[in-house]
Amino acid sequence: MGEHLLSVFVALPFVAALLIALIPRTSQAAHRFVAGTTTAAAFAFLIGLVFGGFDPSQGGLQFAESTSWIPRFQVNWALGMDGLALVLLLLSALIHFLAVIATKPRIDGSKGYYALLLLLFGGVNGVFLATDLFLFYVFWELMLIPMYFLIGIWGGEQRKRAATKFILYTLFGSVLMLVAVVAVYLRSGADGVLPTFDIFALQAQAAGWAIEGGTLFGLEWSTWIFALFFLAFAVKIPVVPFHTWLPDAHVQAPTPISVILAGVLLKLGAYGMLRIGFPLAPDAFAELAWLVATLGVINIVYGAWVALAQTDFKRLVAYSSVSHMGFFLLGIAGVAGLTQGAAHLDAGPRFNSIAGASLQLVTHGISAALMFLLVGVVYDRAHSRDLNRFGGLGRIMPKFFVVATVGFFSSLGLPLLAGFVPEALTLFGAWPSWPLHVGLTAFGLMLTAIYLLQAYRSVLLGPTPRDCKGYADLDRREMAVTLPLVVASVALGVAPFLVLDLLASCLQTILRTLPPEVLP
Amino acid sequence: MPTADFFPLLLAVPLLPLGAWLLQVLVGRSLPRGGDWLPTGAMLGAFGVAVLLYLRAQGLGDEAEHFVWSTGATGGGHGWKWFVSSEGLDAGLAAFRAGLWYDGLTAPLLAMVAGVSFLVHLFSTGYMRGNSRYTAYFAGLALFSFAMLAMLVSDNLLFVFMFWEVMGLCSFLLIGHDSLDRQKPRPRAAAAAVKAFLTTRVGDVALLLGLAILWNGFGTLQFHELAVAVPNLIEGQQGWPSWLETAGVLIFLGAVGKSAQFPLHVWLPDAMEGPTPVSAMIHAATMVAAGVYLVARAFPVLAPGVLAIIAVVGAFTAFFAATIALTQDDLKKVLAYSTISQLGYMISAVGLGSPDGALFHVFTHGLFKAGLFLGAGAVIHACHHEQNLSRLGGLRKRMPVTYASMLLCTAAIAGVPFLSGFYSKDAILAFAAEGWEAGAGMAATLPLVLLGLAAPLTALYMFRMFLLAFSGEPRSDHARDAKEVPLPMSLPLVLLGLGAVFGAMLWFAKPHPSEDAHHLATILASVSLVLGLGAALLYFQFRKRDAGRTAAALGPFARAARGLYGVDGFYHAVTVMPVRVVARLASSFDRRVVDGIVHGLGGFAVQLGLRLRRLQSGHIQRYLYLTYAGLLALTLFALWRVS
Hints:
The complex is a heterodimer. By secondary structure, chain A is mainly α. Chain A is built from 19 helices and four strands.
């Protein structure tokens, strides 16, 4: 089993989903138990790896394995784990586990629900661990389908419409990705050698493609590759203007699915960019970094501004996700800008920038999950998400008040909570390359505070309207779901090195695949 | 060199209230008395430790002014890595390390903050009794104290920023405390809390950018390393680079927000919505002092041009706020504007080149302003929440302890010789005089003129407030029935009254302005005091004018000052409204245009599919017809390409 550790890990949720399929339809508790145990076991396994087994000082892959799968096309079942993958897997396992707990003990069709949730979990694990581009694509597609059903069956009133929009949008992205995948595969074989899907072998070759790539419709070959991958992943992150599926999907999705969507699924697009999109077209990325930075700032400012006008609590949180994911783009762009005035720190800002971008994935996962849980708590009581209808919940729900305060201020980027460090790292790191962009981001930070405090005030402070008077405080299940996220937020705010230590070497390795600077 | 137990003890000062906060949140409500003794006791402990450390520093004798004990500089390891861990990786990656810092400025400030926080806690056990969220209140207070103390022992600007933001959260929660009251929630408290957070946030965001510039320029944010790196850079470049000037302005903007300087002063008077002991906390020991502390610590990176701006902004704020204080009828509002004005003095002192002088005034002001606010709290408590000066009066006989304490504190802030406030304010005026003698032009003259004008106004508005509250006859039943407050509330008043008298003696780093300037300042201060106190006595004591008539006597000026010179309204018009309007536009753009295009494309695809479907009609003739048409088109295309 030793050399197939990751295969077993990836297979586990699929086996568990099969197991649920065998359990009778009426044994709801059993479905829930299997899903809960599987996700908890996955989380425990990963924590075990952190304390022993995984060596954070190594930048490369660990526990790597590879078996030929489709020999005709050199497709391998190839898995491997590095710091970035491990951190995101930890986040994913935690979020999926909490999503199981956050699901109400009695729901219609629990068999399908939990089985799909586990399929989704397995697909996500596969995406994070695949080191074969074809396999990556397979897992990528695999995870979209459970999500479609989870929104389309267990969602709100307009669930079908939202699910269709979600699947069409993401399939649009997938098609572009497929074209790019096939293109780099063929390109890797163009020099008379055997073509390959191995992501790291492709990365090593990619620097060479830039020089003799040729053009297509007047654009550099590598520009096409970059554009296709970027668009494919941009839909998922989401990058403005490809973001409108997100608020619709969130509003219709049930709370636990929203939590997974914001906490994990948005990160997959970012992961794809870090691992595949940028390293496979490094020179095009360097040339277009200004565009990535600009889109990042648009995400931050535009997302925050639209959030400010929302009266639907859940839409507001959805747009806040759009805004926060902009920091990822800005941080990534900070890696490939002009370095000016700080020659002695050349590597410093680049590292800060990519570290900020990566850490943002984790911290946003935590804060956004917490925020969607808060929305769920309010919705369960009020059956409404209209911010104008609540007020004064802080007076009558003291536990909720504490949890919500952590959630809101973590999202706002208050120091000593999770959101601050990645934002500061990103701004610090991106400054030498994109001072103007960083300056505009400041405006977004201001707007973020405005919309969050506005919502905070209308939910928690002031007098309580009469129909809210009877609301009960958080029950034990709600506490069990929110507390781990509260603790995680504080832990990452106080001790960011817990995650940064795992990431550092791996990010160094990724940095080496990206060009140091663009010369004018 | 500090002894081995020094840094653990230093760390204990902020950790004690932090521990108390944690316990208070987790189990406070099930403890007897709502657990109020827990943070209060922890603060007493923190104060004890801070005094112990202070005495050690004092034991250094003449060295006490100059020593620095820091984990970064004096071999207690090199601080703790916090931000980016990068050992063994590529050279040049600067890991962010945080450490502890203790010097001749920290020593008295730390003891003062811990002491005042403790007294505020003690006072609150009386003032807040019976409050529906008693435990939550003490939790907020403890966290507030923790953040301020932690800021004072941090050795770098980033940690100063972080704890300062935490203070922002605490002030938000405490100002908004009454909006969560279980019996009678006050919506206005919520509005004030949001306003305070957002207004200071403007400065915070600017400050964060300033730190980003510094970090990229020097690779460090540690005080000690910056103080070395900046002169080296200036020498190498023979001048201040523009990026460093930009950073200086941005850092100063942070202080403008937090220390409520013009034009970001608008949040502080609204913050009076919080319970009165919280005001004492915000105005004396924490929060607003943080802004001054920041610019004082960042002093080495501030270019001369930036310092000139700082001096003028501070001096203008000192004068501007003093004129408003003169026209306020609310006891707490007078004190709020007086804080803004005094902060102006401190900020100006940094700009005039004397960060030590600024922190000296932070120290003495902390003592007497805490006394004033707690005294105001005692009055409000005794008079059933009556805080309008026109309905107070005659409290001298009814509340003798409060009266005595308030008198000492008022005298101290007004600059009566040999009280603490006299020394610190005198020093600032002396530096302004020195700058005026040395320099030329507006930048050199303005601070002295504005600070000089603010001095008599300070004496005037403070004694106006004092006389209206305590002398004459009671002007309402509430004031008539007032009784002295109980011991937990009066004891802090007595101690702070003593502090207002003797506080200046506890400060190590006495500022040293030149002889001439000092004389000029002393004359200026004395004349100001006589003028201000004389006017107040004449008008309010002997002619027994009440508050309302002051305004009438001052005419249009008073109306403008009472309307706060329209600053609040202006902000509402140019910031709040446009932000809302743009938000609504952005939202509808998002729905109609961005999403509209998506749906349009989707609809187009569906329509296209419906149209194309008609081709699949099943008529063989039509298929053949189309095939021939296609063949023809291809042939034509091929012929065209060949020719």
